[in-house]
Batch of 2 targets.
Target 1
Amino acid sequence: MLIKMPKKSKAKIVKRQSNEEDEQLPSKQGRVEHSDTPSPLCFDSPASLFQSLIQPMDTEHFFREYWEKKPLHLQRCDPSTASYYQSLFQLSDLQCLCSQGLEYYRDVNVVRCINGKKKVLNKEGQVKNSVLQKNFVQNKATIQFHQPQRFKDELWRIQEKLECFFGGLVGSNVYITPQESQGLPAHYDDVEVFILQLEGEKHWLLYSPTVPLATEYSVESEDRIGSPTHDIILKAGDLLYFPRGTIHQASTPAGVDHSTHLTLSTYQRMSWGDLLLDIFPSLLSDRSKTEVSLREGMPRSLLLGSSDGPDSRRRLAAVLRSLADEMETGMQEIRSTHMKRDFIMNRLPPCSQQQQQLTPSGRIPALEDMVCLRFKEHMLITVEPSQKRTDEAMELVVFVLHSLKNPRVSHMMGESCDEEVEQEIYRGLQFPLSHLQALRQLQQVEQLAVDQLQLPTQEDKLSLVLALWSESLLVVL
């Protein structure tokens, strides 16, 4: 059940398609077409959406007892929930989708598990529905559809809210498997997985992790996995959760025409270890500017291994202990830059009824106006070195990053865009460090008078709100 998550470059930035490719998709991609089927989900807020997704389980109970700990099966006997789940994606959707230029490997995989091994039955080039159906019926192959939120508006709506809730990327795959067949061998993933059973039934076997909270995908041999810890029949409307590292395999039972399920996945590369890897370079760089001992040369021949003794280890350990003490007391600022940028650049844009909502709204703000931020959950503020190349000492500046212009069509696909588009997204809005407090003011309140912004001059106040308004991030009340 490997979910395609974006690969990070050395700069931790995933290049994406240009916006021109959005125009190749059907016009429905530009607007939300809600299903006629009543939704059991509550979209009032990210928290309410997640709560309704796992109902009747309580969110606090879920994170206390199950998250990253053990699987959870929620059985639903409500026909309306099953009907809504089916509306998200079904076998009959494939014919229409195949007419939209789908390609093997990129959009669709055709696979079958035979004797514990995955056999890939993909063709070359574009996917034809007739060939896909032939593989499905005659070869009893599983159809794996990558990132359906690119085409299905309701999934866009769900996953955009979940990305706000988790503060991380949320991907999805659809698996359609004929009866008495299995698509993938026993394996584990590096993501937290939520399974929504959309059509039919699926028989799941779960096993104890050999690598708890795994950081990579891996197939496990039958002789290593032992006996199942869970033997579950997932029915339409049911939900199954299991943590990353949980070994699993699934098949469609006899007597069930086919099974369609959706996997929602999140928390790939979102561990404490990943955060430390992100923040440590800036921590050490800042400390080296103020502490002469860190700028002293290391012992001769250390890189050759001849001086890798107790003295070197003690000195390095002392630096780390000192850094840890300053982090704990708040004396040392912690700046996560690459992980924040990677998330904001690659997440879904806001799910909006009208594209006009993503353009500057209302009149230009003035000093006497009350204003508020729009799309707060799609904004990030970072403090980073200025990207201007100068011979002077490094200057820290404030960046306001947002996902309003992100192309939905390339969400979670790891595709590249041209350099100009990437640079526009990468730069964000840049302000002097003196503007940080005013930006945090706007983040923390529902509304604020422009004149009350904590900036020294009226010109600074107007300049800040005008820049945010121009990016559709602020509106005059």
Target 2
Amino acid sequence: MDTSIITEFVGPVSFTSSVFTILALLASVLVYFYQPVWSVRKVPGPPAIPLFGHLPLFAKHGPDLFAVLAKKYGPIYRFHMGRQPLVIVANAELCREVGIKKFKEIPNRSIPSPILASPLHKKGLFWIRDSRWSTMRNTIVSVYQPSYLAKLAPMMQSFIESTSQTIPTDDQDITLNEFSLKMATDVIGKAAFGFDFGLSKSTSHQHADKHIKSFIKQHIYSTTMLKMDLSGSFSIILGLILPILQEPVRQIHKRIPCTMDWKIDRTNRKLNSQLEQIVVNKMKEEQKVSKDFLSLILKARESEAASKKLFTPDYISSIAYEHLLAGSATTSFTLSSCVYLISGHPEVEQKLLKEIDEFGPHDRLPTADDLESRFPYLDQVSLVSIS
């Protein structure tokens, strides 16, 4: 066959193949970026900017944006955290429906990019998947019986008293959020791990155990300095826009000293090692008479062969640490906000103090039932502060 004829034939074929390749790549890119929008297209919400989603709106309005969107689009709306679509449920009864009544129908939650950057956090109850999540959730729910929670009230009161004794009596300014954070961390540390961290006590009475002190130091550093949001590492920010590149970039950056990914990885590894050691030490105790969450989970783990396979030390430590993360900063912020708002409304303060004083003598400790039924105005104040 004539060479010129072959050349004339191959040329158009090669060009056509290149065109189809380019079109296929463009189609793949479009599908990659548009698929998240398409998956929630029927859920009401504001228009999303490609790649960035609703992050510009969040940067403009801050956390108030969610209340604005709920008012405009209703109790269920979509919010795009970069490329990742989220369905926001902004109604207490609907949250109860989703999280309690029909929890089995939603076993897997989308994992945000900050959590993807932390193997420690991915093993917590909120992010584990499929049958492991269902089994572990059932076990944990069985631990948190009302009778068990009611027994925590005296322990909480003891930390409230120790914290109040460290508040200066002169006109010195105090950082209320810091005081409440120490108290909340101590309460959860005792309830979850069975340890008294001693943060809410005076310096001379704080915990002397070097292992516990090291763990608390790493925890405080992790929660106050390594913020896993848009001010965090480059891989986390990239994960909001191009999730497929987050892990490769994180693997590179965590090997480069002084980068944020390197700091986060080093802190997480230290925390993980310390948490697993706490669990191992608990498992070695011959008589598990403690009533903290960690001891109860270990006891439940030993009662069933299936639970023993699921509740390995790494998962147990992550779930216990999840208690500390979920409860300390949120409780501290709520208490601080509540006190701040009350201080600006003297009439609310007087009515609240009147309700508390009428309960009985100052040395009388309210029971769980009392807290639920005897303080209706306090409940109203708390709800307003949270909202």
